[in-house]
Amino acid sequence: MSFGSDNWAGASNRVMEVLAEANAELAPAYGNDHWTGRARDILSDQFEKDVAAFFVGTGTAANSLALGAYARAGGIVLAHTDAHLAHDEAGAPLLFSPGMQIELVDGPNGRISPKALAARLKSFGERDVHRGRPVAVSITNVNELGQCYSTADVAEIAALARRRHCAVHMDGARFVNALAHTGASPADLTWRAGVDVLSLGLTKAGAWCAEAVILFDPAMREDFAYRHKQGAQLFSKNRFAAAQFVAMLEDNHALGLATHANRMGRAVADALTRSEAAALLLPPQANEVFAFLSPAARDRLTRAQITFAPWQTRSAHAAAPPEPDWMLCRFVASFRTSDADVAALERALTG
Amino acid sequence: MSFGSDNWAGASNRVMEVLAEANAELAPAYGNDHWTGRARDILSDQFEKDVAAFFVGTGTAANSLALGAYARAGGIVLAHTDAHLAHDEAGAPLLFSPGMQIELVDGPNGRISPKALAARLKSFGERDVHRGRPVAVSITNVNELGQCYSTADVAEIAALARRRHCAVHMDGARFVNALAHTGASPADLTWRAGVDVLSLGLTKAGAWCAEAVILFDPAMREDFAYRHKQGAQLFSKNRFAAAQFVAMLEDNHALGLATHANRMGRAVADALTRSEAAALLLPPQANEVFAFLSPAARDRLTRAQITFAPWQTRSAHAAAPPEPDWMLCRFVASFRTSDADVAALERALTG
Amino acid sequence: MSFGSDNWAGASNRVMEVLAEANAELAPAYGNDHWTGRARDILSDQFEKDVAAFFVGTGTAANSLALGAYARAGGIVLAHTDAHLAHDEAGAPLLFSPGMQIELVDGPNGRISPKALAARLKSFGERDVHRGRPVAVSITNVNELGQCYSTADVAEIAALARRRHCAVHMDGARFVNALAHTGASPADLTWRAGVDVLSLGLTKAGAWCAEAVILFDPAMREDFAYRHKQGAQLFSKNRFAAAQFVAMLEDNHALGLATHANRMGRAVADALTRSEAAALLLPPQANEVFAFLSPAARDRLTRAQITFAPWQTRSAHAAAPPEPDWMLCRFVASFRTSDADVAALERALTG
Amino acid sequence: MSFGSDNWAGASNRVMEVLAEANAELAPAYGNDHWTGRARDILSDQFEKDVAAFFVGTGTAANSLALGAYARAGGIVLAHTDAHLAHDEAGAPLLFSPGMQIELVDGPNGRISPKALAARLKSFGERDVHRGRPVAVSITNVNELGQCYSTADVAEIAALARRRHCAVHMDGARFVNALAHTGASPADLTWRAGVDVLSLGLTKAGAWCAEAVILFDPAMREDFAYRHKQGAQLFSKNRFAAAQFVAMLEDNHALGLATHANRMGRAVADALTRSEAAALLLPPQANEVFAFLSPAARDRLTRAQITFAPWQTRSAHAAAPPEPDWMLCRFVASFRTSDADVAALERALTG
Q: What is the ipTM of this complex?
């Protein structure tokens, strides 16, 4: 049994069914097919505006291409101290936008502190060519500590960014989980709050490969199309990527899967809370649970062949472990996680 | 009906079945799963040596990452005048290897002329920092005019490259079609003939997304793993890419599909040859047919809703059209092309 | 004695004097000094408009940064078959603008053929993401065969470029020699004819290091300032670069030096013409002379320790040598070349 | 009067004299001249080994090209929290090595803490493609707080780096000032202590443009030559860069200038120490003095038209200002700073 990551889960049955359906006929290549058109229509429909949507193979690609659209000479992206794109993508954003720098801004609960962001933005001189200039602020929602930015949180960050002519990027590798938690609409959590570009990930939610860059300014479509191709991300049989979006977005399928995964996340947190050998770092808001575990608890889980991941936060705001040898760990629930799985976890924990 | 491209066809039934099978259980992410291991084992088995295999999302990615592994400061890649990577990938290889140049070498039948290659290689001074230095020779097999390099052809090019310390890259977007035509083994057509790195494409043959970089020097595995991730090409649910390789390579499934497609290519060529309104550019060796079509013939096909592609060759060796208004066109057969399709094409042509 | 290149000559006496003058006092670094301001004022004065001027260390840097200002995803620069930036800069423009491609367009006399340019521009589809899109046309003036573009020539190229929304770049490594030949004003030969950005080189004319990027749209100044710094081209003691521009541009010093060099070029051409062992490729228009030399003539020059350079043109328009063993050679006159030097050349030629 | 920076000073008389001497004759371009050879010989002589030396236009270029020689896919450079190359070069190192990341390691007195470095290096997993891998450690000597690494300090850092197969880079923008302070030989302070590549800056010491990359492994010479040219840093009239090295290095001219500047630095520190309105951050070791100044002191200096720079350190180890409104400032002495200048500073301070 695994709480290793939600990308250990495969694809939902519905995704597999729609993939089979999409396979029935010949279809033009490189996105000139009706599945791609249909997926784009659904996206524009759900975001309540004409959006430019580009399907890519990985979340790393989505982040890298999205930021690239706003890169300028001497440009600096501001992101949270724990940002995935700064630590876990092997420098991909810097390969796709050579010369772009990433600077980290801390804040509690995995969120950029608006106050710290304001101070950082202010620290840049108007034309300091040596230091460079801020061009984008990137926030992750659900963030790297499993917490969400509310629409108000997003709007606050975005307003600060806008004042300094910075674009706002949202890394939405678990965007649907954030929707499920906040109850916000896709439009409210993004462009209505000031987001310019979204890395929309549905893979973790229950597809096998459904990642996209969503640009809320459709005037950027033509330019981005070249970036997308040059970034080696334009699938020849693009309909199979598109079909997964269709499957996930129609009838709120993804939202249903994410709601389940979030519920399982809370169940995991409850189980951990009931154990004396574990202490939550934060109450989870989505499907990821971060907790300190005693050595004994870790041993018990390992013996029970329950997978989880030792974790690390670089944030100065994170709580210290209750005991020096307790280690921060991450547990992730997915659309496939069951109550039985959580029960087994709890049994293993209690030895 | 479409002869537009083999990537208009979807995935074979077998591929869909194995994808379903791969979806049954949880599996570790990022290639640490048993499907990835199994696909790698099959590849090493079929290439008769330990190879380093990396799955990517597009043929453009495979070419770009493959060349990047051999890029050096001032480095120049030599490729055929019609090379796909020089004209149809939006400069992706130059994005992934900033500063790398591509120089074109012509030759008849879509193949680099060994004599022209030798002369070009000789034209580089030993330490001419202004001009740069050749670092790789890239050949496409099946090439951009639907012709194949035999093992002897490959060996001749590779020997010239090696003498100048250049790596040899093969763009194998239709590699299995080349295997089917030449009857060579995968090993004979690649590393035994001097190829260092292969862009292996099985998507066109009948998968939905099965592209890989195959490095024949396994010592490059560790370094390339970082390149692969940094290039935003490491799938989180990598097992689904791997499963397609398993489906395609076990029991020579891909070879069977390609053999069929090649046979359909010949049938298309025969149909075109029988028409007075068409003239083959070259007798096809795989599943692509290049022919000049009269305006009347093009009209008839369009009216019959038969898709094909106007084409262009930049090679000085290409034959001229028989009449000034005849246009070079490309027809591609796929695993899904049937005798009935070809018969319909012939009926339409003869009006 | 050397006709090897005009960059074998050092700096004019006046340049050395002004450098000494600029050294007299402390001055702010990084271009915030009055010499830099003065050089910029002179440039705006001589170009008859407010220009954005950035001093750099090499012509390669000027070309690379200038094109970078117009690079876009999928962007292609069109340049002449013999363009220096395509063959003699080790791929620098592709390092500074990763992903940018350079395509060559031929034409007689080292000039892009307007007809060929029009055809090439037309060959790009409107949104062909695979092939990419033209973003700039680069012309060299004086060009790589020692010929000049007149103001009418420039305007014709620029009009074609503009129609396709391409920027126009002029590689002016020998710009002053072009001014001297054409008699045009700096403004007429550049922005009034449609040039957007000029690589202005005064090093060959008689400075030790005086290269600049001149942007004719001053609104690009702020953005380019970051590009300039990030390209590692902002001198800390920038006044010394600026002082050379002051020295070269005040009182038309550079124009005087170039006029002399051009006159010496014609004298070299006359001497070669009078020899039976040499044949001009083209009548020179500036200070570079291209001629075919017999083996005997080359031997005689070598024995007389007169330096010149074997040369190569890739243009299909270039004349063939009068005899198979005659070799294309380049002779360059500089501000330091004297009548005595040319007389010595003629004596050596005639054996 | 200015203590703004040592690059406000111009060039020493001797440098100007040697430049004039180098200008006397024609000389081959692009470094094939005897001045370049002579400068290289002197460098090899002073470093007591055959070194590969490349002259560049800026310290930023030296750092960027030097690190580029060790960049690999997924590679990370570790540098001090205050490192110039991380904060003051507009991302240039990331432009020249796309995809390379810079991570900061703190430590007191502007030096990387060996303990913190060891911990950071240990934190990288062996094959963690997501996070990337350390490829180089960069130290600045004289560092960003005006302090020096002794030969023992360098060796300690280098040993840690070596254990993890990291190259060691030294940013020596004020290298001669470090030699003057430590009394170490150039060889002892670099390659004998484990440094692989040095950015050697003599501009600040008293040239107008004398920056170089010194590779201590001469086998890297050929490869780096292409990097140097592609980086747009190969001067056509390279002899003028070389001549400055000759002038600065012969007879220990630069060391003499730096010794003077260091002495003036101490005099500035003494003057500040004697003032009640200033407090040293650290006792200076070279020609830079960092001190907290009261608002009144800053006003007095400004009124006296004495230039200095408000400063910032990001290090958590830096002392806090004695009073909240005292501001960290930097004063730099140069080869041109006189006792009279320091006396004037002291007079101004005491109001």
A: 0.97
